[in-house]
Amino acid sequence: MIKISTRFSVGVYILTLLLVICKDYQCISEFIAGSVNSSPVEIRRLIGRLKKTGWSEYPLA
């Protein structure tokens, strides 16, 4: 499980990745998880939280 302080930095990383790389290509959670050394489940949870708060409209894959 990702700690709270790490969630923030991973969340910022996810938003940056979605804006820069994933705008042209569909990035799956396994790709994002591999780049931050986390599990795909944690990445999907973070993307879900970002969607819930209105920060991301990216479809979960």
Please tag this protein with its features.
61 residues; mainly alpha; 62% helix
Question: Could you please describe the fold and organization of this structure?
Answer:
This protein has 61 residues and is mainly α. The protein is built from three helices and no strands. The chain starts with a helix and ends in a 9-residue tail after the last helix. 11% of the residues are buried. The model has no long low-confidence stretch (mean pLDDT 83).
Task: Describe this structure in a few short sentences.
It is built from three helices and no strands. It has helices spanning 4-20, 29-36, 40-52.
Topology (SSEs and partners):
Elements: H1 4-20, H2 29-36, H3 40-52
